[in-house]
Structures
1.
Amino acid sequence: MPSFIPPTPLYCCPVCNDPLFLQATGKSYACSQRHSFDLAKEGYLNLLPVQFKHSKEPGDNKAMMTARRQFLEAGFYEPMAKAVAMMIDVVQSQQPTLSLLDLGCGEGYYNRKIANYCKSSEQLVLQGIDIAKFAIAAAAKKQPETQFVVGSCNRLPYPNKSFDMVLRIFAPSDDQELQRVLKSNGHLLTVTPGPRHLWQLKEFIYSEVKAHAEESSAPLGFDRLTTQRISYKISPDAQQRAALLQMTPFAWHANAETQLALNNTEQLDIETDFVLTLWRLS
Ligand SMILES: C[S@@+](CC[C@H](N)C(=O)[O-])C[C@H]1O[C@@H](n2cnc3c(N)ncnc32)[C@H](O)[C@@H]1O
Ligand SMILES: [Zn+2]
């Protein structure tokens, strides 16, 4: 049994912004104005009321989520996940008890890896948020001890200064919301595509491949502490290549002919190129 008991997570009501409290039944959260939100059977909380949804199914759809899980579970991005865990270890070496939010967490792959690979994971209080309900349900099912929430990064349902650290892997964010939910001197860890990321896959799709910028622009109000670039080659099979394509934004540009050519290629070595940057709130 771990000796450390994580504090009860605190949320803000997405309708009126008042604090939300767990009700005596243990099955729902409610604010003083009686806006109430039930915990789903998987244990997650949906804090994205319909009036804040811009579409019926915002974020990644079920097919994209399934493709992402299939590709990630095959281990192709595991070296990057390990590097993320090592950066969290560095922050934790100065501050052992750490509340960490995975922003745009998708189906929770990195949350699971962090729980496995971080040296002091029992002192990490992990939370995840994503706008896609399917993804959050899948994440919560696999990792019931982590509190997952359906919500938007543009209007995070957490009080000011809730987290010691925010992790953002290939996901959108709002700089002011990041500043607001982080504690003083809080850390932000971003993973963004490096110039050569998935180069050979892109060559299939675009007549002229453009490299990503080498450095991601600094989020407003943060100072860069360190940057690490990780690149290596992967050789997914045809089915895994199709899954990879489906989880990327350039899937929209791949017509049936391109997809067939990608499927019929015997072997394709694809470069990965990740930029991990650790920032601190100024
Ligand atoms: C490229 S995926 C990355 C998912 C995960 N971090 C990973 O690397 O496996 C981007 C994620 O951001 C989510 N997303 C998009 N818009 C969002 C928003 N406004 N608020 C929260 N999440 C959002 C999507 O649903 C999707 O799961
Ligand atoms: Zn309310």
2.
Amino acid sequence: MRAWRIENDNGIEALKLNDVDIHEPGPGEVRFRVMASSINRRDFNTVRAPMARNTPLPRIPNSDAAGEVVSVGEGVRNFQPGDRVASCFFMRWQAGRMEAPIMFSALGGAEEGMLSEEAVLPETALVHIPNHLSWEEAGTLTCAGVTAWNALVEQGGLTAGDTVLVMGTGGVSIFALQFSKMMGAKVIVISKSDTKLERVRSMGADETVNYATTPDWEKAVLDLTDGRGVDQVVEVGGAGTLQKSIEAVGFGGHIGLIGVLTEGDVNPLPLLSKSIRLTGIYVGSREMFKKMNAAISANLLRPVVDQTYEFGDARAAFKSMGEDKHFGKIVITLHN
Ligand SMILES: NC(=O)c1ccc[n+]([C@@H]2O[C@H](COP(=O)([O-])OP(=O)(O)OC[C@H]3O[C@@H](n4cnc5c(N)ncnc54)[C@H](OP(=O)(O)O)[C@@H]3O)[C@@H](O)[C@H]2O)c1
């Protein structure tokens, strides 16, 4: 079978399409045909500078895959040929808290990734996907979907009537908007693009602020909440935006710290005085993935696929993420 592999530290051009051996599934393993694999910012960063992330080379990138089971190994109980499945970001995080060994089981990082025609994973690293989703839609869930779900629902305790601040309009952020609306929350979205802000309004965002033309966006958010601040922030900016998020969140509110897109300094004092909960988020467990899928099925929620690329055009998909014009997800499709 063919797989894209990062061969060296020379960026997207070092991504090469190779013939790669695949083994028959052993005990407890499942072999599946990959139908779609979306790109996350983390995959883009891994392809762009693998050495900086201590990525063993050569390495197949991408954590996300949706696919169809081809065959199963001895003792596999939960999957059979023909089942529609998705990969879990961490091969070894079933449930409960994050622990050190789990960190070293990330697909497309410490472990081989999913940008290949077929893959073999332990059955404990797979979930069934919602029936109503296309392959491309299902291929977006593994990282961005579970991360937004973990931040808002598992750690944040999102509930109807909450006000959520969603930062940006990329993969994680658009899932955060969708989950927040699904749960009956009010949503404020900030973006650098008025066109993207129009698009989030058409998806139900209640308020929008352009952070490029309104650099003091935290003050705008306070105004929009009558000075009270939001209940939750989906923080993808990192150090450069965290201080503003701390200003924009209300007393007892929650910040899910997800991304590290910007640099800056942070004064932690208001975290104490406002009793803010700040939680580091690292995607999520298989159990969280299953709960998220149940909610997606019950609400017939459809992930936003902005762009699709053929398998042979994978490099173009990564380049597009570098241009930062996307809205929601960029997906590589393998089933045409
Ligand atoms: N911790 C985890 O488990 C985890 C999981 C997934 C992702 N992440 C991280 O979360 C971040 C987002 O990932 P992604 O895959 O969703 O990336 P993405 O699809 O590329 O989206 C990034 C978005 O961030 C917004 N953004 C950039 N700079 C900003 C700023 N200064 N203020 C506000 N928004 C800003 C942009 O939105 P606009 O164009 O609308 O301005 C951009 O579209 C990355 O840092 C990624 O590494 C972490």
